[in-house]
């Protein structure tokens, strides 16, 4: 049996020049839809109640470099920043004060590094990497309270927070594309969000 030039039995094309399309001259195409003029043109915004639930839930899963640095300065009991990248990435530079636990070793080593009630924040390279998400999943499956640091190590460094290597710790100036460029972030200058 054939339907539309493709054999229902074999799944193969008929090989004819028209690929099985008959009466193609009578087909009409609908015009492409006009894109909405504003972000609210395509879909209605969520109700304020639904938006509050969504954003509250989002903050339960993620944090940013500024909030992490504030937790470090405050000395929050049980707070641990976890670099989940490879050994080579760790050696290249990491967020000062982070503990190193590559994602592949989480199942075997997490219990020896973290108390059961630890408040963990994980990161990987950048917003283009989902390694932090994978690590957060692995740690949550082990029963840990965990959040992912959005932006990863890239935004930690670009926002001017201290970067540690085996040669020591240094802070860069803030990249003006991600924050006020007037001083290193270690001086306490942030976006004030």
UniProtKB/TrEMBL annotation:
Keyword match Zinc: no
Superkingdom of origin: Bacteria
InterPro entries cross-referenced by the UniProt entry: GlpE_sulfurtransferase (IPR050229), Rhodanese-like_dom (IPR001763), Rhodanese-like_dom_sf (IPR036873)
Gene Ontology molecular function terms on file: transferase activity
Keyword match Transit peptide: no
PROSITE patterns linked: RHODANESE_3 (PS50206)
A Pfam short name: Rhodanese
UniProt keyword terms in alphabetical order: Transferase
Domain annotation Rhodanese: ranges: 75-165
Name this polypeptide is given: Rhodanese-related sulfurtransferase
Organism: Microterricola gilva
Lineage: Bacteria, Bacillati, Actinomycetota, Actinomycetes, Micrococcales
């Amino acid at each position: 049996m054939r339907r539309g030039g493709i054999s229902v039995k074999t799944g193969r094309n008929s090989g004819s020049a028209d690929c099985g399309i008959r009466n193609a001259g009578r087909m009409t195409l609908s015009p492409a839809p006009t894109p909405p003029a504003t972000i609210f043109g395509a879909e209605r915004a969520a109700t304020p109640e639904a938006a509050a639930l969504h954003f509250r839930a989002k903050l339960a899963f993620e944090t940013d470099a500024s909030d992490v640095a504030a937790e470090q300065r405050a000395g929050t009991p049980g707070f641990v920043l976890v670099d989940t990248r490879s050994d080579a990435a760790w050696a290249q530079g990491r967020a000062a004060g982070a503990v190193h636990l590559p994602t592949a070793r989480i199942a075997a080593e997490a219990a020896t590094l973290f108390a059961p009630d630890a408040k963990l924040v994980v990161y990987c390279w950048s917003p283009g990497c989902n390694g932090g998400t994978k690590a957060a999943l692995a740690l949550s499956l082990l029963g840990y309270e965990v959040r992912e640091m959005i932006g990863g190590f890239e935004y930690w460094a670009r926002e001017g927070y201290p970067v540690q290597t085996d040669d020591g710790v240094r802070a860069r100036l803030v990249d003006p594309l991600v924050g006020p460029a007037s001083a290193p972030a270690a001086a306490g200058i942030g976006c004030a969000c």
